[in-house]
Amino acid sequence: MERTNLKKVLINAVKIIISIGLLYFVFKKIPFREVAGLWSTVSIPYVLAAAVFFLASQVLSTKRLEFYLEANHFRLSFRSNLELYFLGMFYNFFIPGGIGGDAYKVYLLNKKFGWSVKKITSALFNDRLSGLLAICVLILLSSGFLFDLKWLPVIVIAIISGVFLTLMITKKWFPAYQSVFYTTLACSIAIQGLQVICFVLLLKSLGVDGHFAIYTVTFLGSSILSLISFAGIGVREVLFLQASKYFDFDPAVSVSASLLFTVITAFFSFFGVFFQLRKLHLHLKEN
């Protein structure tokens, strides 16, 4: 156990170092005072609207996990699931060197209800897998606005192939979730769509009125690559900086919007501290 915890600490330490290094690289190219100057001009109503859409995506994420838990006949109440979700966000964002948010969920649910660690872990894994598939689908759909129509059949085939492959993986290794595959995929697409809207609203708060397709592709791509950094910090900014070399948009604006997205994520992740300070009461769904 100590060796496992040490490994996790080292991995998270490396991620934090990567994030710091990437941000250093970005701010060597774009002075932070330029970003700060842009923040002083943001439209607050747009930022507040973006926060609402981000919160909606997190609430819907809670519902998606509920589908996976119920596939194992684990009937956790929605309120308990929501509190557990924000507690996991808090652990992931503010305690990077400690136990991960997902691992803490597994620990609490196993301790409280005696549910199988293997089944809870598989539910969380498929929850992540569904989100990854949705990101890839939306990247391909958004890419359709960047390429000629002749590439449309290729994009459609790629989407169908990705969905089919993931369904086959689910059937073979996780048959319990086959019945909720399309429901959770629809949830995942809606979740990522809400986060894209959140980011677009942040761009509009900074005066951006175009190039939303490439912004969307870059933003979603950073969600996949965020695995190599802490909470995706640094990766998003570098991707936007590099994309600005090939597409006509201001890198300072995109980096500013990206950092605003991180601030919103941190704000809602902090909600989990309230459930950490008071004893979390988990309840089953009433019949």
From TrEMBL:
Keywords: Cell membrane, Membrane, Transmembrane, Transmembrane helix. It holds the Pfam family LPG_synthase_TM. It is found in: Cell membrane. It is a multi-pass membrane protein. It comes from the Bacteria. InterPro entries: L-PG_synthase/AglD (IPR022791). The chain crosses the membrane at residues 9-27, 39-61, 82-99, 129-147, 154-174, 180-203, 212-235, 255-275. PANTHER family: BLL5419 PROTEIN. NCBIfam families: flippase-like domain. This is Uncharacterized membrane protein YbhN (UPF0104 family).
